Amino acid sequence: MSPAKKRARSYDSAKIRAAVLAQFGQVRDAVLALTPEQLSAPTRLDDWTVRELAAHFTMAVGAVVRGLEMPEPAKHALPLLDWPSGTVTESAAIADGTRELAASATPEELFARTTARVETALAEAPDTRLVPTRFGAMTLADFLVTRTVELVVHTDDLNDALPGLDVPYDRQALAACTRLLADALAMKAPGASTEVRIPPFAVVQCVEGPRHTRGTPPNVVETDPLTWIRLATGRVEWRAALDDAKVSASGERADLSKLLPLMS
Fold it and tell me: Fewer Cβ in 10 A, N or C end of the chain?
């Protein structure tokens, strides 16, 4: 099967829906307890403050509602595995929209409005419903998997901005985010010479070269889910992760530095 036609793994839709709502709820509870000083704190996302990052959570989840309120597209246009690489094309517009949203209402108003609308929308929409997105029409089921990436990645940004906040990660959301980004790597660098292990959620084979058939593969990369997500999204550089012993890499084809990040 060619990379362009590589089929995404299947996800349990009920678990993904629950994970999106759970992770959004955990972020909401944490944000609503922040002080004005904390909301004004800087983040690692260019010049975004915590307030703007908080608004972005509501934008990312609110996109589900906005998509379901629009006429259903006639044709499916965006496979799930194409989503990570496509996000860079709209990064500037997303940043501008986030700042405008943050200036338009308080975090309390944004989270209250989004929570009510998304719960209602998801209760009524089937998985197969096509949803228009910035990058092309996707099924609702696939679009919700992308929301786990948005939520988990930015929960990590929030925790980085406010040490000690420690917003928890819903296990299903963390798993889906890890798996989608791992599969995106395998699509970007098809092959079977290198095994990338991200326990307990994902193992993928990638990179052209000799194929191993038994025993321990000659090229192995292993890391934890959050380090993998940071590498895949450009929050951490490959060399820094190696130096900090956050990644183990053995074999001449185990250097993934030229393949990362997958999205930013």
Answer: N
CB atoms within 10 A of CB 136: 16
CA–CA separation, 24 and 122 (whole Å): 14
- The model carries a pTM of 0.94
Which pLDDT tens digit goes with each residue over 186-201?
A: 999 999 999 999 999 9
Structure token digits, residue 144: 């919700």
- What separation, in Å, do the N-terminal and C-terminal C-alpha atoms of the chain show? 27
Three-state SS string over 91-155 comes to HHHHHHHHHHHHHHCCHHHHHHHHHHHHHHHHHHCCCCCEECCCCCCEEHHHHHHHHHHHHHHHH
CA angle centred on 179, ends 176 and 180, rounded to 5°: 85
Strand partners, 247: 223
pLDDT in tens, 148-179: 999 999 999 999 999 999 999 999 999 999 99
